[in-house]
């Protein structure tokens, strides 16, 4: 085993550490960090997802920590390694070879995204972000919480998102991503935009905010909001649909998933009028949402059939995994509101994006410094674990 002081790495960006380390050793199977020291080994210690049965007082398990940022500097990473090492995990921190991920999709025609199999492969001219994955062979519940407290402050200081997880869904195997629509795939709440044009904007927006924060029953609040839209002309829906602003990174995410043979769907407490438009324009494999009753070109103020609520979203994820024969560890969900929480918890990787406080607190992963390109970075973390330092 070769030991190197962290000062050697202080002036080199982590993305270039593989080149730096190959100058020090010809055979590198694993790199670990402990108390200011990098250890280069010709043997590999695996991070495996199983509890440590030797712990009598608390559960202890292995975890991966994925870091994604537009730039991850040596200063940022060394500060984090030092802080986490000071918390004294049972073994050294495993460092996997860093990688890059695209921050945008280079394409002119958004309608061509799903039909262009080379859309992601030809993305080399786009801006790139950095991925670093760290491994921990044993983290107690107490240590996990200490890690999260440290990471929350560090993340804000460096504008870097992170995910502390026990599994890493891989783009090398089929999978499924189920997405919320309003404030997730698009940047607006469609019902609020309809209400503005119908003259009841403030009234509806206040109820929407309460529902998304988990302060109201979602189904009841939706029906009450839709009731305020009675006699609104259907042309208002068309006006809102024509102006829907996509969440940044959405087209990149869809192209990445389809190229990897993944399925991507929408489950929304919003409306089919908008979800169907997104499916037609962007190629979602399936969409599930609520249907507004429209008679003679006018909204009646009613929703047809049952409401797509929190439980329906979670059930939809399980149904899609069964339909497409997706392994449970290959399921991903992403959303922002309280009605997404059950869905996020049902997924192997549940991701909150620019989420409400209650969702930030309960979700497995929160994207605060990225849009949907952040999920592309998270899904490429598994490739870091499977890459050799010596390549």
Description:
- It is built from 14 helices and 15 strands.
- The protein has 391 residues and is an alpha/beta fold.
- The strands form two sheets. Strands 1, 2, 3, 4, 5, 6, 7 and 8 form an eight-stranded antiparallel β-sheet that branches. Strands 12-11-10-9-13-14-15 form a seven-stranded mixed β-sheet, with helices on both faces.
- It is elongated and about 75 Å long.
- 45% of the residues are buried.
Write a compact overview of the structure shown.
With 391 residues, the chain is of the alpha/beta class. It has helices at 17-22, 74-86, 141-158, 190-198, 201-212, 218-227, 234-242, 250-259, 272-282, 310-323, 341-346, 357-362, 373-379, 381-385; strands spanning 2-5, 30-34, 37-41, 60-69, 93-95, 99-102, 128-140, 161-165, 176-179, 263-271, 286-295, 298-304, 331-335, 349-353, 365-367.
Give short descriptive properties of this protein.
391 residues; alpha/beta; 14 helices; 15 strands; 35% helix
Poorly predicted tracts of residues: 49-59, 110-117
**Major sheet, described briefly?**
8 strands, antiparallel
Q: What is the CA-CA span between the terminal residues?
A: 19 Å
Fraction in beta strands: 15-25%
Write the layout of secondary structure elements.
Blueprint lengths: L1 E4 L11 H6 L7 E5 L2 E5 L18 E10 L4 H13 L6 E3 L3 E4 L25 E13 H18 L2 E5 L10 E4 L10 H9 L2 H12 L5 H10 L6 H9 L7 H10 L3 E9 H11 L3 E10 L2 E7 L5 H14 L7 E5 L5 H6 L2 E5 L3 H6 L2 E3 L5 H7 L1 H5 L6
Parallel strand pairs: 9-10, 9-13, 10-11, 13-14, 14-15
Antiparallel strand pairs: 1-3, 2-3, 2-5, 4-7, 4-8, 5-7, 6-7, 11-12
């Amino acid at each position: 085993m070769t030991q190197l002081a962290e000062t050697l790495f202080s002036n080199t960006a982590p993305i270039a550490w593989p080149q730096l380390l190959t100058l020090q050793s010809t055979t590198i199977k694993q790199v670990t960090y402990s108390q200011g020291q990098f250890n280069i080994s010709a043997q590999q210690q695996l991070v495996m997802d199983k509890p440590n049965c030797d712990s009598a007082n608390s559960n202890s398990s292995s975890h991966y920590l994925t870091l994604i940022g537009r730039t991850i500097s040596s200063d940022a990473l060394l500060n984090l390694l030092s802080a986490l090492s000071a918390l004294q995990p049972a073994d050294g921190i495993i460092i996997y070879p860093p990688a890059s991920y695209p921050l945008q999709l280079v394409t002119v025609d958004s309608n061509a995204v799903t039909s262009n199999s080379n859309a992601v492969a030809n993305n080399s001219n786009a801006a790139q972000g950095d991925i670093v994955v760290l491994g921990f062979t044993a983290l107690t519940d107490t240590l996990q919480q200490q890690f999260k407290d440290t990471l929350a402050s560090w993340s804000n200081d460096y504008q870097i998102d992170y995910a502390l997880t026990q599994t890493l869904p891989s783009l090398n195997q089929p999978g499924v991503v189920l997405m919320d629509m309003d404030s997730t795939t698009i940047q607006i709440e469609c019902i609020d935009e309809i209400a503005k044009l119908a003259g009841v904007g403030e009234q509806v927006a206040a109820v929407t905010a309460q529902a998304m924060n988990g302060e109201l029953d979602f189904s009841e609040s939706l029906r009450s909001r839709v009731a305020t839209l009675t006699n609104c002309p259907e042309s208002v829906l068309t006006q809102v649909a024509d102006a829907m602003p996509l969440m940044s990174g959405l087209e990149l995410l869809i192209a990445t998933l389809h190229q990897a043979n993944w399925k991507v769907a929408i489950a929304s407490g919003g409306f089919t009028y908008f979800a169907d438009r997104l499916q037609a324009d962007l190629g979602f494999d399936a969409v599930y949402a609520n249907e507004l009753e429209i008679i003679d070109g006018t909204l009646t103020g009613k929703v047809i059939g049952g409401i797509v609520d929190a439980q329906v979203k979670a059930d939809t994820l399980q149904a899609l995994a069964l339909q497409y024969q997706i392994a449970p560890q290959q399921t991903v969900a992403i959303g922002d509101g309280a009605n997404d929480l059950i869905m996020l918890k049902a997924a192997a990787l549940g991701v909150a994006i620019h989420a409400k406080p209650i969702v930030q607190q309960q979700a497995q992963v929160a994207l605060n410094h990225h849009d949907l390109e952040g999920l592309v970075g998270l899904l490429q973390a598994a490739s870091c674990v499977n890459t050799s330092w010596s390549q």
